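**User:** Once you have settled down, spend some time on the protein underneath, comparing sequence with structure tokens, and judge whether sequence predicts the tokens.
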Amino acid sequence: MNINVLKTGFTAICWLFGTLLAFGQRIDLKDLSAFKNPLNSWSLGQNVVADLNAENVLKTTKGEGILVNQSTAKKAGSDLYTINEYGDVAVELDYLTAKGTNSGIYLQGNYEIQIDDAWGLKNVTSSNNGGIYQRWDDSKPEADKGFGGVAPRQNVSKAPGLWQHIKIIFQAPKFDASGKKTQNAKIVSAELNGVLIHENVELFGATRGAAGPEKAKGPLRLQGDHGSVAFRNIQISELSEIPKPSQNGGADPIYIEAGSNNMIRSFVDVAPGVRSVHAISVGGPEKVAYSYDLDNGTLLQGWHGDFIDATPMWDGRGNGTSRALGSVTRFTKKPILAIAKLAGDQDKWIVDTTGTGFRTKGYVMDKQDRPEFKYIINGTNVTDAVKVMENGQGLTREIAVDKPSKDLYFLLATASNIEEVAKGLYLIDDKSYYIQLADGAAKPVIRTVDGYKEMIVAIGTKLNYTILF
């Protein structure tokens, strides 16, 4: 397998906030009083779930804490504006989309960061999730009417029905006493799902669908006339000073590509103070990758986007760790034994390999040049085949054993909460990812252990499931 290493020729830019003053407003979603004249398409809910098999469908539970817009072809919704208006501002919020939906976040009502269902797309444009939408000129030829949009640096979008997190630092346009614009607006930075997708983008004018002329202050506007979408944890902070770019003085980053199938051994940090010291990360052209712990047979994480930042591993003496370059979904808080022999489905899970005879046997390569991991536990030979889905929407996993046993169980998930949303389809850890069991698989047992939910299932001869994220 070829490893293509890109070493950039510039020093990475980081945004340092220092003593930056920010005056924050967290919108209390117990009612809609923070918004101007909200129409009937907007409501509050306690829970919201997308239907992965139906376009533009969100199912809600009455309550508070989540702002929901239901917009359909028969009954179009409306845009929602905050009562307060803002100049230089930091906006941070969570959102989730329905399947195939389209929405947007407008800074000052005029500059749109696009929201849409871009799950699994390899090539994204300014019209896709996280893009800075186009400007528009009706006087130009049809093919040229839309212009000036900026695509996100990479597609780090999650599946419909999963919470996505965005943070935008926005610099408002400036005007002199006569009202003449003296400085363009700017997206100083935008992070989607923990990944920087825009940096220092000057906005030469309002994007298409702007609420009105450019101005020094304006409301936050949430698009509601194109599709069903939900928001929560809306934090708006007025900035007294725009952060300045600063050279970090560190090493040039060392990136590893996965334009074709690629893999790298390294340490992988799973959580603060928790490290897998025998991990393999695997990526490919689908722009989906994962990390696997060889010492426990644990699938650690998966991500959408670019492959690996090996700077911590290879710069100078290095510390042995690599970092995902895309939007990471953690599947575990620590490396933990994936398979255990239990007397019954309520027995305590065996967290480490002590007394199990666990021995890794490495991996073999399949016909597509992808690894299949092998190990022995309790005298049973296990093959663990994790595959990236061709559509780029997640991972499939097949666990096969050579000695079927009714007391051999597999740990599917440990999470704060687990909810079944359709037959065999489960939402894991506050809508972080889905687990979908293959038809014919044994029904999993969901149990509460020390305040967390554990989802385990009897393996039988073979277990197949899909992780969507």
In short: The chain has two domains: 19-242, 254-468. The domain at 19-242 is CATH 2.60.120.560 (Jelly Rolls).
